Amino acid sequence: MDLLVVGAGEMGRWVADTMTAAAAPVDAAVTFTDRDPAVAADAARSRDAEVVSADTEATFDAVCLAVPMSAVPDAAAGYAGRAEHALFDVSGEMTAAVDALREHGPDLERASYHPLFAPPRVPGNVAAVIDNDGPHVAAIADAIEAGGNDVFETTADEHDRAMETVQAGAHAAVLAWRLAGDDVREEFHTPVSRALDGVADTVTEGSPAVYAEIQRAFDGAAGVADAAGEIAAADAERFAELYEAARGDGSTRERHE
Description:
The protein has 257 residues and is α/β, with parallel strands linked by helices. The protein has two domains: 2-154, 3-Layer(aba) Sandwich (Rossmann fold); 158-256. It is 50% helix and 18% strand. The chain contains eleven helices and eight strands. The chain has helices at residues 10-20, 37-45, 72-79, 94-104, 135-146, 156-180, 191-203, 208-217, 220-233, 236-245, 252-256, and strands at 2-6, 29-33, 49-51, 60-65, 83-89, 109-115, 125-132, 150-153. Helix 5 (135-146) links the parallel strand 7 (125-132) and strand 8. It is elongated, with a radius of gyration of 21 Å. 35% of the residues are buried.
């Protein structure tokens, strides 16, 4: 499979490494392109990969869009014509992505994958919307699973609703805790605060642009802010109600509302 990876950042490099790994059940040859040619050249340098200019007219068996979420519609418009068989993305916002893949690649195999981890923490779970299945999309999923990842199918709506909680809401809560708190001696940390401190370190080791994209795409932060405000204003009786609502099976939002 000849694969063009559009976007040579961390996620694009993860796709290339996954598709060309020894365990991958597909013989893939990777070509990178990026709006910054130096980034594409750097990605290719340490891999057996080629580089083409962003305005290439060459065609490939499959095209992967490894670009920021907000850039997927334009990337789909620009690169769908470079795909002979399959077009897929690994951006993280699925409703807009699937719509764009469908609009610009109506006759192609199409899928949207979201690795639910940063590439340094592979392997992990990978959400997948298979919009138009076929042998190339199946081979891509098989290669991801061969890397030790668990690929599970979902819908674009279910995925994006989940991201409001597990990404936008979680990141906002952790960042707000870190920003609101003071530095304390290590001896003062409780098991809860120590765990939160470690999570905050994980969140803040990434790219602020990536986290800003998540907050732009999903509405979870507003709900966290509302809940924090309600906790801050609660009397003892209302606090007890909120505390009890936070227990249980994960349906906190529905019970709270």
